Amino acid sequence: MEIASIKSVKAREILDSRGNPTVEVEVVLVNGTTGIAAVPSGVSTGKHEAVELRDGDKSRYWGLGVLKAVEHVNGEIASAMAGMSALEQETIDQRLIELDGTANKARLGANAILGTSLAVAKAGASFRGIPLYSYLGGATANLLPVPMLNILNGGKHARGSTDFQEFMIMPVGAANFNQAMQISSEVYHALHKVLEDKRLSTNVGDEGGFAPRLPSNKDALELILSAIDMAGYKAGQDLFIALDPAASTFYQGGKHHSAHGKYVLSQEGVTLSSTEMIDYYVKLTSDYPVISIEDGLAEDDWAGWSLLTAQLGKQTHLVGDDLYATNMERLEKGIAQKASNSILIKVNQIGTLSETLAVIRRAQKAGWTTIISHRSGETEDTTIADLAVASNAGLIKAGAPCRSERLAKYNRLLRIEEDLGKAAQYPGKKALYNLERIK
Is position 268 annotated as part of the catalytic site? Predict the structure, then answer.
């Protein structure tokens, strides 16, 4: 086993899809095997996420440099990892957590810790001579995820567009992942034509989705329905629509989400209470083939979330992202309060691979669905594609079928499907197994 021990750990500052610095870590084992991982970065970040360490030096990259995190990897972390076995992921991750010593990875930086954790896993997979999804998931890792493609961007991803941040399509009617990508790409290109015909902007946002200036969220849904129709598919059958309003970004109110808190849809000129916001979603899901709503309410509006789930949970995926921040304690609270029926998983929200896998397993045990997700600031790193298959998550969010840092994930999944051959499974509607609406 000694030849699987870590010889060196080295980090460097690279650029993400927004041209901002991020951390890349390279782990080399004694026998020369290497693993390289790059860390993503979000813009619509929840306050409960692990801390991404930035330099704050305004003379470099407007203060967004990550040289401190790089230094932590090259110093303390590299020293602590030397000689440890790359095949013992949980031991490695626990060592990193202990080394940092804070509850939210603020000292060394979640970006420094995560880069190391993922690079070690990749080195371990290379050492074993097997793909990362097999290394992490074993023989049962054969479920390709249904992609949730963000084809129309708003909110913080595209200023001046809609109040809601993401409008996604889910090709549940596809026979396999390859066909799912074909359907999605065709609808995306049809949407481009629909926008052109209406003389609306075809510029794209951070995640590759179009970002037209629209008077309401319903207008965005109508455009997508037109695109599905133009591409020759049926909404509510071949494809469903998924939303990520990112409600924390338009919530205004008391610290503890008191009754005075309001949801302000400024594009629509509407201000709603928590219960009125729920009514808004009830109407939206009855009028449109919307099957999934992520972050429909603010990140600490627990009472609202429980009410939303009681009203819509049997027929709609209610996904907590900012609400849970891939954090086990918050997930346990959500399970106890029946606050949602699905969780978004982002490796950089928690900061190690082992903790991420534990949260996925716990959510699945509770009967929830799990969605593996990218961030708006991405790299060409494809770890999340392998993670989706390894954990049998059944769902993935990686952006529009546009921009290479998004397509890298989808293309990796196409290769995995080919690699699995006849063993590959595509769940389609079964990915939404906890909903009565699609049974």
Answer: no
